[in-house]
Amino acid sequence: MKIAIHEALLNAPTERERLQMAHELGADGVEYQAETLAERVEEIALAVGEGVARPSVVRLGFDLNLVSTDLAVRQAGLDRVRHAMTMAVDIGASGVVFAPHVGALALPNLMPWRAPNQLAAELLLSHLSWLPDLAYVFELQLYLLPLPQSFLANVVLGTEVLRKIKFDRHTKLATHLSDLATTPLDHLTDAHPHIQHLYVNGDRLPHALWDSFKEMNGWVTVAPREGQPAFDLPSTLAQLRAHR
After folding, report:
1. What is the Cα–Cα distance from 14 to 132, expressed in whole angstroms?
2. Which of 32, 93, 30, 35 lies closest to 64, judged by CA?
């Protein structure tokens, strides 16, 4: 596994210094937030080089609303995903992390035909019928991020989505360690191979899970999380390095 730090935890005056700070802390990469990235793309691309960390992934905010009842809102969210992919290519990042929807669904209850969460899953699948093709063209990974406050509430449901797109090799799962720690181990059996991006913010995984992620090809990213207490960045990074 490779270790990254979300840019919000790296207070530096220039992008070169931000990447250098991450390197000095022992990280391999820096994760960038898509919503504030556009005006910095050129500076970041020029900053990448010897003696610094590299861009890991670009993460989108949690307001994409890709399963909105409003076509214009869905289209705007998809445009943001496409733009994030373009920026990821420009800065040399390996992929894009996105949560398709957060919060209550506005979709109708059409039971016994479809419940709102089933309609949301079908809308998401319609997007995933072509987004991985774009990722293939860009040579990127898409990381689908399940969240407890979403219709896609955990990696088990995320794996079901991936199953329906035949486990496309350009689409993987991202998750938070704290969410994984509350998922029974036997429920993670199918999901585990598809988790290629992991977020931590001071959490301590059960030892069995640490060991199971040592061979992961993707990123473990130290990142702030709303509602979680502050944590010591150097000690968290030392814990990660000790277990890889």
Report:
1. 33
2. 35
Q: Among 91, 88, 65, which Cα is nearest to 76's? A: 65
Helix axes 71-91, 131-138, angle to 10 degrees: 20
Query: How many Å apart are CA 175 and CA 147, to the nearest integer?
Result: 8
Q: What is the mean pLDDT of each run of 10 residues along the chain (244 residues)?
A: 94 94 95 97 92 94 93 96 98 97 85 86 93 95 94 91 91 88 73 87 64 78 79 86 78
The model's pTM is: 0.92
Q: CA dihedral in degrees (125, 101, 108, 154; nearest 10)? A: 70
- Domains (ranges, CATH) in the chain? 2-242 (3.20.20.150)
The answer to whether 2 and 220 are in contact (CB under 8 A) is: yes
